[in-house]
Amino acid sequence: MDGGAAGAPTLGVDLGGTKIEIAAVSPDGRILGSRRRPTEASRGPEPVIADLIATLRESIAAEGRRATAVGVGVAAQVDGSGGVVFAPNLRWRNVALGARLSAAVGLPVTVTNDVRAATFGEWKFGAGRGESDLVCLFIGTGIGGGAVVAGTLLEGASHTGGELGHMTIVTGGRACTCRNLGCFEAYVGGWAIAARAQEAARSSPSDGRWMVDAAGTLEAITAATVVAGFEAGDAMSKRLFDETAAYLGSGLVGVVNAFNPRRLILGGGIVERAPFLIEPAERHVRTHALEAAMGELRFERAGLGNDAGVVGAAAMAAHASGRGGPG
Amino acid sequence: MDGGAAGAPTLGVDLGGTKIEIAAVSPDGRILGSRRRPTEASRGPEPVIADLIATLRESIAAEGRRATAVGVGVAAQVDGSGGVVFAPNLRWRNVALGARLSAAVGLPVTVTNDVRAATFGEWKFGAGRGESDLVCLFIGTGIGGGAVVAGTLLEGASHTGGELGHMTIVTGGRACTCRNLGCFEAYVGGWAIAARAQEAARSSPSDGRWMVDAAGTLEAITAATVVAGFEAGDAMSKRLFDETAAYLGSGLVGVVNAFNPRRLILGGGIVERAPFLIEPAERHVRTHALEAAMGELRFERAGLGNDAGVVGAAAMAAHASGRGGPG
Fold first, then answer.
1. 3-state SS, residue B103
2. What is the ipTM of this complex?
3. Fewer beta carbons within 10 Å, N or C terminal of chain B?
4. Which residues pair with B264 in a beta bridge?
5. Could you say which of A157, A162, A293 has the minimum Cβ distance to residue B261?
6. How many contacts, defined by CB atoms under 8 Å, are there between A and B?
């Protein structure tokens, strides 16, 4: 940040199975400009990397070649030295992404997991600004998590730390998409809310009528159907919603007791669609988590929305190029 | 550690509801000498603090007045600046323990939670030596936990981080001693194993015969009874043991997915009495936790036994006096 680079942006990349988003981000977290294109992951890694390089070059040119570093958040297991170990949505295994991008654009490149990037973004420029101990939980189709402990982003021994969606909350319970039974995500993730709702409608067709009518078919019921039914006063939707809030509270008690964060930041598509889910879950946490863990705790909604990933990735790149390592 | 203080010990104190233990510990973690006395907590704080000061002075004299600092691990919620906020076993509230001791013995005093002290001990001189990412779980009457994240002891926003025994593993499950339902501790802690065994013997008296005979009465059945029955081939004890291992595995999956430690260190009275509990739990974790979190993971038994508390408290004091802050 010294001398000529004062105020220079870094580039943040959000690389997922459906879209590539690249933003130029100022040192104080403002998006100066962004580009987006479909990933078309079925083409395999090489065309996607070529697109990524071309789009990065456009972004670098658009910012007058002032960008100092690139940060990539990718929906993947990463190796801590720029490599993608496994990205199920991209169908990538062992791609030396950081080295490839760095060689192509001539800038230092940091590669991290997309949820950790979003957590970093919320920490530096969103709802966690100024805090040294926080937890983020992003509830969308699945549940992603991240934690900052004593001013350090939780990375973990093999770069998978913060998988809070895969904490067991019901021993022997519902099968998760991972190998475990009873995961937090297997009750509160969007796919799980949909599955629970479809099961309920199947076993009680008359009570499930509203949801089936709203969705068109039973198989088309989603978490959004349940939220809409809750808002419309449908009894079964209300029950499913209340159960979801109870599972959310139950999982959050464990998160709070384990991490003792000062802020608990909730974001993701489900929270954005149904922010009123937070209140009953927070009430449950305040009456069930350890009192000693409660004194400093604040619940917050995520502040950056869909920008958390690119802003966080860009901020991690700035942090890494200024300090020599991510996190 | 420089100059005249090279090799000088620090004093570690383990202050609990039943005993006070003080050890002089060398910079490389060896116990040079120790003293122990009953706490007699019912007398209230003042006589206990007087005893503590007298015993500290004896220890300081016995070490030729070379000790450079004192670390206290106490079964309590602490405030991060030497104060005890609440110690249920001692029946203390808001005692400025660090300031009192420091004024009396003329050395810097660090006060921390006893489980965090033990975690620090295992990290620096026990089963976690040399690691930057680890989790300790001490399973005794209750379950205490601690974590080291990127080379920093997890402290938490209000100094209660690492309460892994109070992660929910059965939503809506058994009542815990805390305010939550379905805590890890409410299934796997010694008190909970005893309660589960007594309930089982009560509902199936003929199957529970072995345990009742071994314990003398149904109400006298403890976790040790169950372990003895397991070793003796009693069918109900075997079932209770297997269920305990399953709950342990289920909780550990959550711990591993959340923290992604390189070492998972298990200690405490239950693990010391029944180390064969680890193997089925480890097998469960290896088949149910995220594969990406498994690559680097090693299970270890705690290495310091009952000394972890005093050794860790002494090491924290050395760390604090050398670096200006605990952890």
1. helix
2. 0.94
3. N
4. B135, B299
5. A157
6. 196
